[in-house]
Amino acid sequence: MEIADLLPLSGVLDDVRAASKKQALQELSTIAATQTAQEERTVLDLLLARERLGSTGVGAGVAIPHGRLGSLTRLSAVFARLREPIEFDAVDGKPVDLIFLLLAPDSAGSDHLKALALVSRLLRDHRVCARLRGADNAEALYAVLTGAAGTSRA
Questions:
Q1: Is-catalytic flag, 66?
Q2: Which pLDDT tens digit goes with each residue over 46-79?
Q3: What is the value of pTM for the model shown?
Q4: Number of C-beta neighbours around residue 4 at 10 A
Q5: Does domain 3-144 match CATH 3.40.930.10?
């Protein structure tokens, strides 16, 4: 599995303006709903419910919100780079500016965990995050995400 298997170029958002965690999740839910033919509210409710269990802010300015939807047929992802970092209740207390949303069908089994591990490994690499923060546009973000993941297999 590779990032390109999960994330289409149309799912990469650059320069997203969000003043809060909820607003950022709403922006990502809109794109995810379009990609997956789901109701935007269904996606947002899933993400908010997951955040109530504990923040998906994993530290170093990165969040990986995720969840399972029974009506999905395949894993799907959206990535956003925020214009300004926002409070996300991250484990290190630092604001978040890189968000990688991952949605999986209930039937995904271990593939969901493998995808989470892949994304987590990728975004734990400070060099990758620095390149994402320095990228010029969505195409450059996509190139960093898919190029950097080429050597990481789950």
A1: yes
A2: 999 999 999 999 999 999 999 998 888 899 999 9
A3: 0.91
A4: 15
A5: yes
Which of the residues 6, 7, 43, 66 is marked catalytic? 66
* 124 pLDDT tier (thresholds 50, 70, 90): very high
Write down the domain spans for the chain.
Answer: 3-144
What would the pLDDT profile of 105-120 be if each residue is shown by its tens digit? 988 778 888 999 999 9
DSSP letter string, 93-153: S--EEEEEEEEEEGGGTHHHHHHHHHHHHHHH-HHHHHHHHH--SHHHHHHHHHHHGGG--
What does the buried/exposed string (b/e) look like for 60-99 if buried means 16 or more CB atoms within 10 Å of the residue's CB? bbbbbbbbebeebeebbbbbbbbeeebebebeeeebbbbb
